[in-house]
Amino acid sequence: MKIGIVLSSTPGYSETFFTSKIKGLQAHGYKVVLLTQVANDDFNMCPVIKQPKVYKNAIIQIFMMIIVFLSLMPHLKAVKRFVALEKTQKKSATQLLKKIYLSSHILSLKVDWLHFGFATQTIEYELVARAIGAKMAVSFRGFDINVYPIKHPSCYDLLWKNVDKVHSISNDLLQKAYVHGLSKDVPFKIIMPAVDMSNLNLIRNYTSQNKKLQIVTVARLNWIKGLDLAINAIKILKDEGLDFDYHIIGSGTPIEKERYRLQLHQLQLENEVFLHGKLSHDDVLSKLNSADIYLQSSIQEGFCNAVLEAQALGLLCVVTDAGGLNENIVHEKTGWIVPNGAPKLLANKIVEVNNLSTERKNEVSKNAISRVKHNFNVEQQQMQFADFYIT
Amino acid sequence: MNIAIYNGNLKPTTFVLRLAQVVNKNHNLCVVGASTKLFKYKHADISFLPTNHNNKLILLFQLLFQLITFLVLYPKIWLHFVAILRKSDKPILTRIKQFLIWSKLIRNKADIVHIQWVSHLILFEELLDLSYFKIAVSLRGRLINSAPLSDLNLTALYRKTFPKIDKFHAVSNDIKMKAMHYGADENKIKVIYSGINVSSFKFNKSIKDSQPDTLNVLSIGREHWIKGYNYALEAIKGLKDKGVKINYTIIGASDSEELVVLRQSLNIEKEVQLLSRVSFEDVLNAMKQADVFLLPSVSEGLANVVIEAMLTGLPVISSDTGGMPELVLHNETGLLFKNRDVTSLIDTVLKFKKLSIKEKETMIIKAYEKVNEQHNLKQFELCFNDFYASDEHNTKMN
Q: Rounded distance, CA A267 to CA B52, Å?
């Protein structure tokens, strides 16, 4: 069976979600082809077909269109079907030409399944799978369901009508998709993210109480990560006299950096809180390894790989009850879930966790490691994806 | 005296327009900045001096023309400017702009250059030790309060240039104190509150008679994290949970992904309206409909919109950030809550709800008087004429 996976760019080395999915599918005898806008040279796991570019220069654009249309001649059947399908959507001739051009790399393809890596990528391409006689699958990620359709209601109406199977990384996203109009008749499968445990150091022991408490968050400085709340909670900890360092690891735009620098300045936390920016995977691991408590105060989450990795490393995780985080953590077993929006509750929970007995800390830490190992391992995820296209 | 208002571009802000209105009588005022126009022109009684074109090819022609003509007219200054700019390690495009700006200011005989946006000091820093013209700088909002905290180049620029600036205009006392951290001399900073034409507002001094069932809260301002709307939404959620019937409208923030998603996450979609920008007339109408104005900003110089709300007779609740406590005197001209503190905001709204009509009326009258005293156009005119005139005196002495 042949699977075409649609992504915006070829996955980088660290994007294990897609690389392990591709590896797993190949190991189970599938042929995989990637369809992307950007292809990086270092990617060689499977064939990659690039989407034709849009040129600013009109003459070059017309020339490229002619070449692309000529190359579509052997696939006239698919193109005809595509035009017939698109016509039902009342598209103008120019829109249609543009669509054929942008979909040409898919229209010339023969696959059994066309799997879109993100729901937002299906927009304007909802009909192309049917045109080439393939089944259409789509994966839901956090942004796809938690953000985009809130601002653009009914953006997925056409997707819901044409999708053959959906993959969601959490039950929460699936339930929200139903609210946004996904029919309950559409087959689905929840396949949660996985952690490659092979290169993590899994020995952790909470013994000494003497050293300064180390708290860490790995998150982009985007508003959805709720860092306003985390920093306000940290301020309460300082006012209560707790001695700690708080490390925030993740990139941000200049505007985002300014937002949190100002907050730290106004709350006089510049000596306690460190914005590290983006760090290499090794540096992130070493920061996580030397930390005690992992904090995630997101406003919304699809699932959150960072929290899963923190548990894999045996960190004591304190998170808000945002979306997929409720499935990521088992409250009071592998970490703690706190109601969103209240800095005081978050601060209290951190103090409470810090004051736990060594035995209790080690118990939660071991629970977390073992749950990730058993329920979120790469082999299991690969099996589930191999099953996805046949059951 | 020739006053050049360096604005970066030739689209003057409300502030610059007001300035032109009040100082033009005694001085020649000219707005200076980049433009697609090539020559000096007049529009609605204000002179505009275009310095540099945005198109690189035209800019090159402008440079050639200016290099030749300026050499003929001011050979000594030409040599000096070229020597300074050749030594500089700024990008070539910046240096071309600098030469064009400087030489045009000299040719137009500017006595004082008033920089509107403090980050533009980067274009003038080489001239601060020299006496070609005086340099004045306006200190306002974000560029002092937060931008230098994350942009270390800006911090370095302020530290280097502030001690050498001839005079500063600060929009609030709070901004003045912050500028002093970067080495600005206290005596050189003049706090001039923004002036507003009181007569374009109609003050309604009576609070709606019957205690309304639903509290209508209004905020106005562009969509930006600095406006603190995320805290306001959290507070609305808290008030809703306490059983308060509330309706919150934000004008100007309809495009914010953060607010749209937060509103949905907090389940307050019925209570919160996010509207796009509207005309001044519609702003006044919205103020008339509302029961209270809310300024949840996490940082402000001194928000003009609060002045406007006070002029229409709308009670104000504001965060205690930046210059806001200089206008919103707690329990007198309005109510203040602790910046970034949702609980404090909730308590303040509840407190407002409990005020009697009489207490609210006293508050809005005091607020109206405060604005009239602190932000009237006459005051603004006197202060700015004085601000520039102190230089005239020095120039004559020289």
A: 42
